[in-house]
């Protein structure tokens, strides 16, 4: 949950296809080819620098406090445009390093392009 001006609401970073039930997510609705997502290992949260699972990829078991610092995947700070949560855990995403500035979450099984208002803003992520 994110609190803004005293009101709590669920932030959504991804949208599911129109046939799926609504959830608090960062993914936007889209039709994607399964082949574009094939590099994401099972039991991981994956993010890509391009839409539809294209571009550079980073995958995480638990998250990363600072996508802009080593060690960890390089080139992912403020560049994520698509995501797939293949883990069994909810992942929370943040605008700042060290889990500051909550943006929203991606539930297990959610896959798609990050909503335009959240693209290229993610600096940290973790299970939550």
UniProtKB/TrEMBL annotation:
Residues making up the signal peptide according to the UniProt record: 1-20
Keyword field: Signal
Protein name per UniProt: Peptidase inhibitor family I36
Species: Lentzea atacamensis
């Amino acid at each position: 949950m994110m609190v803004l001006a005293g009101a709590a609401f669920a932030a959504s970073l991804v949208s599911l296809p129109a046939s799926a039930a609504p959830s608090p997510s960062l993914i936007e609705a889209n039709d994607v080819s399964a082949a574009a997502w094939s590099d994401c290992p099972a039991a991981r949260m994956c993010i890509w620098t391009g839409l539809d699972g294209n571009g550079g990829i980073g995958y995480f078991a638990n998250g990363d406090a600072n996508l802009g610092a080593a060690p960890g995947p390089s080139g992912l700070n403020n560049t994520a445009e698509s995501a797939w949560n293949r883990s069994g855990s909810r992942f929370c995403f943040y605008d700042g390093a060290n889990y500051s500035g909550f943006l929203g979450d991606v539930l297990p099984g959610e896959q798609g392009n990050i909503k335009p208002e959240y693209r290229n803003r993610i600096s940290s992520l973790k299970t939550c």
